[in-house]
Write a structure and sequence with these properties.
This protein is an alpha/beta fold and about 150 residues long. The chain has five helices and eight strands. It has one domain: MurE/MurF, N-terminal domain (Udp-n-acetylmuramoylalanyl-d-glutamate--2,6- Diaminopimelate Ligase, Chain: A, domain 1), CATH 3.40.1390. Strands 2-7-6-5-4-8 form a six-stranded mixed beta sheet. Strands 1-3 form a two-stranded antiparallel ribbon.
């Protein structure tokens, strides 16, 4: 099961760029990560630039709407805006976990989540801790792929 444009469009009402029925195979907060068909999340200046993320394969971005989007952003490039990036990531992970529940297809494609921001991973110490959610996704993916996550 992969994260799709439609999934994000249901979560984030404020968006721009092309709309479509495409999938995200990578979600990351680091522009320098190779991210085929990726959703880049610009958490901080340490995340790198949007242009670098696009060069590494990002096909959309989740952006803090209080920050100016770079002038070089292509008009057609999908941008999802949010007031709180940490909360937005929790919403995305929650949606993805819901999609994975009950899926057991042996050759199912899955979205790869890669987060490096340590503060983000411990944003919330309750059940919605991002690190715990990522672990849950990895466990489900390993079950689906037979331990090959």
């Amino acid at each position: 099961m992969v994260l799709t444009y439609r999934d994000l469009a249901e979560i984030f009402s404020e968006k721009q760029g092309v709309q479509g029925d495409f999938a995200f195979y990578t979600v990351t907060d680091m522009a320098g990560d190779i991210q085929p068909k990726g959703l880049f999340i610009h958490i901080s200046e340490d995340s790198g630039s949007l242009s670098e993320a696009i060069a590494q394969g990002a096909i959309a971005v989740l952006w803090d709407k209080r920050k100016k989007l770079p002038n070089y952003t292509p008009n057609h490039f999908p941008v999802f805006f949010t007031d709180d990036l940490g909360d937005a990531i929790v919403q995305i992970l929650t949606r993805y976990i819901e999609k994975l529940d009950g899926e057991t297809t042996a050759k199912m494609e899955t979205t790869n989540f890669k987060f490096s921001n340590k503060k983000l991973l411990n944003k919330n110490n309750e059940s919605y801790d991002i690190a715990v959610m990522l672990k849950k996704i990895i466990e489900k993916q390993e079950k689906i792929h037979g331990g090959r996550g």
